[in-house]
Amino acid sequence: MCMDYKQICSSLVLIMLAGPANVEAAEATLAVASNFTAPANQLVEEFESQTDHEISLVFGSSGRFFAQISNGAPFDLFLSADQEKPRALIESNLAVAESLFTYALGGLVLWSSDEQLVDGFTVLDSDRFQKLALANSRLAPYGVAAEEVIDQLGLLNALQAKLVRGENIAQTYQFVFTGNAELGFVAKSQVYKNNSLQSGSAWNVPANLHSSITQDAVLLQRASGNSAALDFIEFLQSDRGRSIIQSFGYTVEE
Amino acid sequence: MGFSEADITAILLTLRLATTVTILLLLMGAPLAWWLARTSSRFKGPIGALIALPLVLPPTVLGFYLLLALGPNGPIGQITQSLGLGTLAFSYSGLVIGSIFYSLPFVVQPLQNAFEAIGDRPLEVAATLGAGPVDRFFSVALPMAKPGFFTAAVLGFAHTVGEFGVVLMIGGNIPGETRVVSVQIYDHVEALAYDQANQLALLMIVFSFLVLLSVYGLQRKSHRQVLRFGS
User: Fold this and answer.
1) Beta pairing, strands A54-60 & A27-33
2) Domain residue ranges of chain A, discontinuous segments joined by +
3) B47 pairs with which residues across the strands?
């Protein structure tokens, strides 16, 4: 017994000593708003190939992340879908104020999985669809933007009976993807990759039809010395990082 | 601070959904449970397992497949479209269908247990007294299985009230149509309206506790175990 215990101990020490080849290598867990899923995956893949850091991604709604972080969830960096929640975390001393930055401005598209259906916004004023999906405007900035667009086009009353709401933009996409809703306002990042539409038909909503979807990121207090999180923030703001973000249909601030 | 109008709409919708589903499930579940309790068919195992699937599957799996099935290219969607009903996702009818799948084991299993507990003896006695199969079911099996029906109804109702994952996937959050209490609570939490979430959540806890208390209380009185979860 005694020998076994010693052996285990010494091998543990060896593992701990031999583990990280680079003393700088660290790990970070990121809470990422679901609309940013695709670019986050690509960003992390490239970041990890350049460094020895390890990044774990958790996707979900910003509201849930806010509740979890407020109750001690072990996240290091929070990529929110809005500006309000990172700021609220700073106010309650859970996030580092100086780290706050805008990582992306979201784009909105009217999308259908049917290749013929969307020929500009005129389809909204037609009887060629039964259901129009959008994100819940109470929870998601993409939902707020979608309602503003419908309102700007003067169709809010006419479309009221056709609206179905996803809890977040990922679910909204799912409704349209499965054809249960013929049309939906989704995030451009969900249907664009390498600057081109991946499937179906889409209308790119002009940014002047809705208030901007500004997405802020913030470093959480527990990670103030986490080199993986800090290096990843730097990567997000680098030219390469920004061009990846743009290739998914986001715009980035100058 | 009381419940908002939207909360009350959600509560009423939930009660309406649970009532409809419970009635339908008792009508469908009774013959199914009777067959499962009496048969020695080799399909008994597979069918029993199929019915019990929602007990172990995450509701998201059930919800996702329902969404595909109800969609314009899915099998249920094809049928409803050819009947001129359109597709049923995002509608009250769609929720009823989803809930029937979801709550089926909670109704069938207590009924099956109750039917099995009767044993062969009373039915054989009834047969020797000249009762046919239909008569035996209605005048012997049904009365003797009454506690099982009570448990099945209460559990089916309560489980439908507590349904969340499936509704989230096929509901579309339409007030008065598909936005049930559990979804309303989720929305409150996501929107950081914790006070409103608390009120509704507390109501759910009190309701669920009372439901289970009544089931266990009845079981103690009848000395018969029809509920095999816990106790």
Assistant:
1) parallel
2) 25-105+213-247, 108-204
3) none
Tell me the per-residue pLDDT of A174-202, one tens digit each, with 9 for 90 and over: 999 999 999 999 999 999 988 889 999 99
CA–chain centroid gap for A100, Å, is: 16
Alpha-carbon gap, residue A168 to A107, rounded angstroms: 15
Do A25-105+213-247 and A108-204 share a fold?
A: yes
Residue of B44 and B220 predicted with greater confidence: B44
Query: B14-222 belongs to which homologous superfamily?
Result: MetI-like (1.10.3720.10)
Q: Quick one: A25-105+213-247 is in which CATH superfamily? A: Periplasmic binding protein-like II (3.40.190.10)
The tokens for A149 are: 């667009």
Q: Where are the domains of chain B?
A: 14-222
Pairing of strands A77-79, A27-33: parallel
Show the beta-strand stretches assigned E in chain A. 27-33, 54-60, 77-79, 101-106, 108-112, 132-135, 163-166, 183-187, 192-193, 196-197, 201-204, 213-219
The whole-chain average pLDDT of chain B stands at 89
Please compute the mean of the pLDDT values over residues B222-226 and round it to a whole number: 58
- CB pairs < 8 Å spanning A and B: 64
* Site from A117, A164, A172 to mutate, B interface, most B CB atoms within 10 angstroms: A164
Cβ neighbours of B169 in A, within 8 Å = 171, 174
Contact B92, B177 (CB under 8 A): yes
Provide the pLDDT for residue B222: 67
- Chain B closest CA to A165's CA: distance in Å? 5
pLDDT score of A6: 62
- According to CATH, what is the number of the domain A108-204? 3.40.190.10
Q: Could A61 and B190 be called an inter-chain contact, meaning their C-beta atoms sit closer than 8 Å?
A: yes
Angstroms from A58 CA to nearest CA on chain B: 17
Q: Which residues pair with A187 in a beta bridge?
A: A108
Could you tell me the sign of the dihedral formed by the alpha carbons of A83, A89, A91, A95, in that order? negative
Burial of B84 per CB tally in 10 Å (0-12, 13-18, 19+) = exposed
